[in-house]
Amino acid sequence: MAELARLRRGAGKRAHQVKDLWGVGALEDLAALLEEGHGSDRLEDAEEAVFLASTLWALHQQSRRDQGMYAKGRSLGGAVRSLIRQKDSPGTDDEESPLRKRLVRVGTAESLDSVAVRLREIVLLLRTAPEPLPLDYARLAGQLYRWQHRPERAGVQREWGREFHLAAIASRGRSGKAPGAEGDDAIDPELGADEDGTYGGYAAGE
């Protein structure tokens, strides 16, 4: 628990900015694994991605001792959509929710410093959700790693948007309402599937 408390102090900051966290939790080893998995030599980008994802997870985990806040397949966009459903009044248009606008601000950020601060704001809201809303922090780390490479940034931004829209489709599917029915909000046509038929490597509704 003491190490989690130390990690929380780095949430929303850059790697190596908090001297107390230098070397904690084998973050360098995790960064090396991320870099190796992508077959590149961008170790500094990997360190930033792993540090940010790990410290956000520690912040998210605070006061949730009974349940882990890491869950494979739980996307950032999907978590924001679920949070809207929990916090906003019934009948509120998800597209007009201030929570959706927070996600858009992450997607439109131009610096990693801004991304870090805006993600911290979202994670604080997820932490206090009426029902637990965990995240796939390994997936988020991979997205943050790719985001730092300018040619891949637009793809990551599209993934966050797709995650948000696909969560609505999955919700309608569970309720028995057919996607595309009259009155439904549809996926932005500019956020279509990739060439392999998936959305950012994830199938629809996953």
UniProtKB/TrEMBL annotation:
InterPro entries recorded: CRISPR-assoc_prot_Cse2, Cse2_sf
Region described as Disordered: 172-206
Transmembrane segments: none
Residue ranges with Acidic residues bias: 182-197
Domain of life the protein comes from: Bacteria
Pfam assignment, any one: CRISPR_Cse2
NCBIfam families xrefs: casB_cse2
Name of the protein described by the UniProt record: Type I-E CRISPR-associated protein Cse2/CasB
Organism: Streptomyces gelaticus
Highest classification ranks of the organism: Bacteria, Bacillati, Actinomycetota, Actinomycetes, Kitasatosporales
